[in-house]
Amino acid sequence: MSQTNRSPWIHQLNTDRPIETLASDTATDIAIVGAGIAGVSTAFFILEHTDKKVVLLDGGKLAHGATGHNAGHVTSAFELSFEDMVKDFGLEKASEGQTLVDGAWELLEDMYRKASLTIPFSQFTGYGGLPTLEHVLEELADNLLRSKANIKQNSVAISKNAPYLSSIPAEYQELYSLVDQSEINEKLETEGEEYSAIVSYQTGLVNSALFCQEIVRYLSTQYKERFSLYEHTFIQKIALHESKAILDAGTKTITAEQVVLCTNGFENFTILNYSGLDIDSRFHHEVSGCVGYMCGYLEPMDKPPAARYYDIPFSKEEAKNIPTGEPYYYITRRPYEYEQNKEHNIVCVGGPEFELADREQYVKDFLYPEEAHNDVDTFIKKTLRRKEQSAINYEFRWHGLMGYTPNRVRLIGSEPKNPVLLYNLGCNGIGILPSIYGGKRISQIVSGEKLNPSIFDPKDA
Ligand SMILES: Cc1cc2nc3c(=O)[nH]c(=O)nc-3n(C[C@H](O)[C@H](O)[C@H](O)COP(=O)(O)OP(=O)(O)OC[C@H]3O[C@@H](n4cnc5c(N)ncnc54)[C@H](O)[C@@H]3O)c2cc1C
């Protein structure tokens, strides 16, 4: 049942788009390496807020990395709980970080407006299914801290039948409501009592690859004198000097005042710093690789868009030993044009993740493994309880590379050992809004704005 890596988002891209490869040595103000949503957003905001010339480079094709292989679920959540963010960074910095990524909703809308995009972007309420008291307490602890920091909470509703109601500490009393189990099941589209509580949050759906394609189309006309995109141009080496970088693209070079790495983090290249201490070995230990697996099937277009996640009923400790990595599954459902002018709903389901060994190469064309497929299929049949389950025809199965930073927060800012190098990377499983915010922050740095220290700052080792 193995299948090649086939993503529904790449399927919707324009295959006739002309592709340009770097044909001669070139010079620019800013070189951006990586044309996924991070690179494209960084180009967008630098071009908008400065008069710099920007060259965007990709070793493969525009938006064919994680950006073309995700769930397209827009959320300002982080890959760690707010409580853990507060432990790592303190309440003030954690809430500032959350507020900055929350602000990326507006940046995304602004990009849509400026580029006059008409591609689908739906916004609605998403739901997370919480199976145990431990999961509920985690959400409530987050909400308590959010209320202290005066930032938006995610509303929590608990079933009147939940067996643990009397164990919820009194300090959380104002932070949740009690509802019928049927209301929870309806929102999660499940049955039984496996999920005794639900958390609601702001969410949206977008094809981030199509978004990049359309933004690049806009940049290429709006800034034709200052913007170029070169694809199939892999950067093997970056040499950093005191006030310039030289990028080695095999037979050609690019000289730039500054270089921004939007590479997701984990591809094989070398950084040589001729103006300070070694960066290369540190950089490669800042980001570790992990492959996420998803599949998708088509349904009649008779239900509204949805985005939900389902925590697996393990404790945090037990979840660390789950062979397929992530302690939750996530699904999205949205209208999808598969053949021209024929719309369906597409339901996408993800969850399994497998770590790559240090510097191990991710193989894009690797077949979709049986183990990941069976894992997702079992979840769909058990939790979504589809009556016609044996008839599921998975039109798409795909996987993508996620670069994880050790603290699970995107790395955005200047390299402390040589500010000619900047980063907007570390895909971390949730990366659409953080990448967009990262693009904005990099443009502020490039234009010389003085920014307050943040949770995103690259640290000096
Ligand atoms: C299975 C899966 C599901 C996900 N689901 C969601 C979701 O629902 N919501 C969400 O917000 N996020 C999700 N994400 C994460 C999100 O997709 C990423 O955070 C985001 O796309 C990262 O964008 P990026 O531009 O940083 O990286 P990428 O899109 O991976 O782009 C990096 C680019 O850099 C290029 N590159 C790398 N090295 C070089 C080099 N040396 N020279 C030239 N080019 C180079 C690559 O070819 C690639 O195109 C998911 C990710 C995966 C894998």
The tally of helices reads 12
Distance between the termini: 46 Å
Helical coverage, percent range: 25-40%
From the helix content, strand content and strand pairing, which structural class follows? alpha/beta
Strand count? 19
Unreliable runs: none
Q: Give the integer mean of the pLDDT values.
A: 90
Query: Beta-strand percentage?
Result: 25-35%
- Molecular shape: globular
The biggest sheet, with number of strands, parallel, antiparallel or mixed sense and barrel status, is: 10 strands, mixed
Based on CA atoms alone, the radius of gyration comes out at 22 Å
The distinct ligands, each listed once, are: flavin-adenine dinucleotide
Task: Please tell me about this protein's structure.
- The protein has helices at 8-11, 37-49, 82-89, 91-102, 104-114, 133-149, 181-188, 208-222, 280-286, 316-319, 370-384, 432-446; strands spanning 26-33, 54-57, 73-74, 121-130, 155-159, 176-179, 197-206, 227-230, 237-240, 245-248, 253-261, 270-273, 288-299, 306-311, 325-339, 342-355, 394-404, 411-414, 421-425.
- With 461 residues, it is α/β, with parallel strands linked by helices.
- The strands form two sheets. Strands 3, 4, 5, 6, 7, 13, 14, 15, 16 and 17 form a ten-stranded mixed beta sheet that branches. Strands 1, 2, 8, 9, 10, 11, 12, 18 and 19 form a nine-stranded mixed beta sheet that branches.
- Helix 2 packs parallel to helix 8 and helix 5 crosses helix 12 (432-446).
- The termini are far apart.
- Flavin-adenine dinucleotide is lined by residues 33-39, 57-60, 64-67, 69-73, 208, 234-235, 262-264, 267, 269, 292, 294, 350, 400, 402, 425, 427, 429-432, 435.
